[in-house]
Amino acid sequence: MPYKFKSRATADLIMLDANGRKLLEIIGKSPDEVHGIITVEQIPAAIAALEAAAAEEAARRKQPEDDAQDEDAAPASQDSVALGQRIVPFVDMLRRSAADGKEVTW
Prior knowledge:
It is built from five helices and four strands, in the order E-E-H-E-H-H-H-H-E. The model has no long low-confidence stretch (mean pLDDT 89). The chain is of the alpha+beta class. Helices cover 48% and strands 11% of the residues. A hairpin with a 5-residue loop joins strand 1 and strand 2. It has one domain (3-62, 81-105). It has helices spanning 17-26, 43-62, 65-68, 83-86, 88-100, and strands at residues 3-7, 13-15, 37-38, 104-105. The chain has a four-stranded antiparallel beta sheet.
């Protein structure tokens, strides 16, 4: 089931289940809740958490393949979408919502 994030400050943002769950986990929200809210007060911390997770993933991707992985781990696909790219529309929604004093719901 896809996630539909809503804010009175922006257009709706629809994400596939796996991507939406990952973003919610990063910001400390339960992805198992059918409906939830990110309050205006929670938005700065959510943005910081998303950007930190994206920076951490980018650092891992820069490590040489032989140093970063063991035999059992699947190699990271160079064609896959990085977290830093995936969070852009969501972070934009959060920033615009904070600027307008509006919460984000799903």
